[in-house]
Amino acid sequence: MGITDRKEREKQEMRKLIISAAMEMFITEGFDKTSIRNIADKIEYSPATIYLYYKDKDELLYEVQGQAFMEIYNAFVRDVTATDPMDRLQQLLHSYVNFGFEHPDLYDLMFILRSPMNATENDWPNCDEAYHFLTKTLEECIDQLRFTDVNLAALSIWGLGHGLISLYIRERIKVTKIPDDQIRTAIKATVDEQLRLIKR
Amino acid sequence: MGITDRKEREKQEMRKLIISAAMEMFITEGFDKTSIRNIADKIEYSPATIYLYYKDKDELLYEVQGQAFMEIYNAFVRDVTATDPMDRLQQLLHSYVNFGFEHPDLYDLMFILRSPMNATENDWPNCDEAYHFLTKTLEECIDQLRFTDVNLAALSIWGLGHGLISLYIRERIKVTKIPDDQIRTAIKATVDEQLRLIKR
DNA sequence: TTTATTTACTGAACACTGTTTATTAAGTTT
DNA sequence: AAACTTAATAAACAGTGTTCAGTAAATAAA
Predict the structure, then answer these.
(1) Which end of chain B is more exposed for a tag (fewer CB within 10 A), N or C?
(2) What is the pLDDT of residues A92-151, one digit of tens each?
(3) Alpha-carbon distance A106 to A68, whole Å?
């Protein structure tokens, strides 16, 4: 049936159109300040139409999260090029931190925003892959680390990286009185120091 | 003038009434799900009345933040009782992490929520005091640490603590697949390990 | 080709949100 | 007792996410 094929294709295109617009606005305006009506305006459809393709605003976020996790994963693949395991770990961390600096709104909706974690309890698209990149990288050098459990090592390194970036994004790091133009280097230095610390 | 005194007193009482109601609802429902109308209902006044005492919803948050920072500071004073500097540091960290576990919604509005950081750019009530508790505690044992700069040491320890708690509160830590009933102990263990790591 | 049916879309509404303003009622001063 | 000041509110405005009855076009059946 050619027609149903085309219909399906058009449906997918419409979904993509909506998500692209949503993502663009989430990045430039943030999730909260982007309304369904804004998105509808941008793609020149009525707000109600969006609800024919997505259940609610959370599903839009869920989908954009998936895209964003793909992007950070691709950044990992792009940046982590070394062969030495410890070097790879460092490259991974730099890649992560840089992603946060360069795409703060994406980082926000991936790791900070409270939202569609209700989606089937467990599966969280493409986040697993990104996390797996970390655990895999850690596995390769776990014998050089002061950790025996990969998950605990991940906690120690992801926790710090995320903590610093989110304090930065949500402007809490200001309380340290570290000058604005030095914060990024301070964060990077702290993360690098962490790598040295966890080395056996 | 007795009357103006009483008026001033009544005004302050009203402000307190509003803030108490707001705080209670921020804790039980969260900031986003608490509306001005809800608060007004609770104290049996009209929504417009609240605007006679506070500029906007952000000012409410700002005020509750102040209270919350006082509370965490009090928790620090209560929990950090040791005389040995390193012990004090550990007690401080435990106090911080426990506060996050026991008052997740307060923690949220203090450290995660995006909001009234616009308030005069700089002053952020009672947060400085709490942060100062950390830097002071660090100063006392900086010679036993692998850091020379107190602010960088704070970054390393606050960053990790905050990172883990916020990943927990915003449910991102689930991706580690660490069983729910083990996460808290895993977080505490990670923080303790960090203390060992930064020890010279 | 004409009729029937399915599909895609939308205008208008609902129930909420933060916030402002004109009006009323009470308290205070003259 | 009259004039003035203050405190509180009802009602409105502009926005939000979301739903639903109704319309117009595309497809299927006659």
Answers:
(1) N
(2) 999 999 999 999 999 999 999 997 765 545 567 789 999 999 999 999 999 999 999 999
(3) 6
Same domain, A161 and A94: yes
Dihedral of CA atoms A153, A182, B65, B113 in degrees, nearest 10, equals -60
Domain range for residue A134?
Answer: 65-198
Q: Which of A124, A146, A190 sits opposite B175 (nearest CB)?
A: A124
B35-89 pLDDT tens trace: 999 999 999 999 999 999 999 999 999 999 999 999 999 999 999 999 999 999 9
For A137-154, b/e burial (b = at least 16 CB within 10 A) is: bbeebbeebebeebbbbb
Taking the CA of residue A45 as centre, how many other CA atoms within 13 Å lie in the half-sphere pointing to its CB?
16
Residue A60 lies in a domain: no
First to last CA, chain A: 63
Q: Rounded CA gap, B154 and B139, in Å?
A: 10
